Please model this.
Amino acid sequence: MISAVMPTYARADIVFERGEGAYLFDSAGRRYLDFSSGVAVTAFGHAHPRLVEALTGQARKVWHTSNLFRVAGQERVAARLIGASFADTVFFCNSGAEAWECGVKVIRRHFHDSDQPERYRIITCGGGFHGRTLAAISAANQEKLVKGFGPLLDGFDQVPFGDLDALRAAVTSKTAAICIEPIQGEGGIHVAPAGYLRAVRAIADEHGLLLFYDEIQTGIGRTGTLFAHQREGAMPDVMCLAKGLGGGFPVGACLATERAAAAMTAGSHGSTFGGNPLAMAVADAVLDLVLAPGFLDGVAALGERFGALLESLVARHPSVFADARGVGLMRGLKCRPPNTMVIDALRREGLLAVGASDNVVRLLPPLIIADAQVQEALAVLDRVAAVLAGGEAAS
Ligand SMILES: *Cc1c(COP(=O)(O)O)cnc(C)c1O
Model:
């Protein structure tokens, strides 16, 4: 018999009852160090007092009014995102896939209203991930995402991530935009080669294309800068955010320049729930925290130390880990045994991590993590790697 909850996930058999900072506690009272952060979402850990206060304070006033009216929180959060980015305007929605799809609509409408409706195609990267809507799976076009869901949406051309020659060769008179994750998350923590984003920007400019970044996972401080592309200084025309923006409250956002979004007039797009007062109150508080002076420098510095510790871990356990990769607090370990085996072993030892393609274990601690907790995670990783290495030797 099918389960009451549609069985679309391979879930671990744990129910968490509460969380505090970087820790979660299950229904048996067992404590876990959370280096999954609900897949890069709970950037400020669990039950952060400032976020709890923002949400409950707003809940006592008004939850939802729809977008038939002005929402003060949207105006405030949009202004702050604009002040901290390339963007001139922001659309709010509820999830990553919706934010990404808004970007696709901005791009198509831009060329439609520029009298170039034939330019609707978007170049995407192999191994990319943009969510689970039909448009998003059509763009990523991986077997495991699309199987049985055809016909797919037309309009996406794929090139290998990091390959500039393939990208140049894929541009045609129908190309509208290039869509890139500055660091592929679900794909296995693939970091764009140095200079890649700047070169992609140059290709976009040369051909009059819009550049569209998916920073749903990399954004909001995850890599030590507010947005991952800021490390290279190659600005997009359109960018989508979600995950960390709400610190665990569902919210997504599509940011764009005035030029890119000029055709998004009243009635062109919408969302019943998007940017409701609860989501905006939490996002505003998240921005208070992430933009606090010195905060991101601390994330970057800790991220460097974490990265160095992971390098040494790999060196100690070469039969278990093939390499360490990532930037800031978005890290991955490529495994030799199946990554699911490593993740299960870590969880039994009280450390939560996330899988990714390419047999990678993702380590995505909250941005508020302390050095001592990084050491605690490393101790678990060392212990589990030693056991797994022993198992390899024994088998
Ligand atoms: C998680 C993710 C998405 C999809 O977000 P949902 O909220 O699950 O729809 C899209 N793009 C990237 C890069 C992501 O990491």
Notes: The chain has two domains: 16-34+294-388, 50-290.
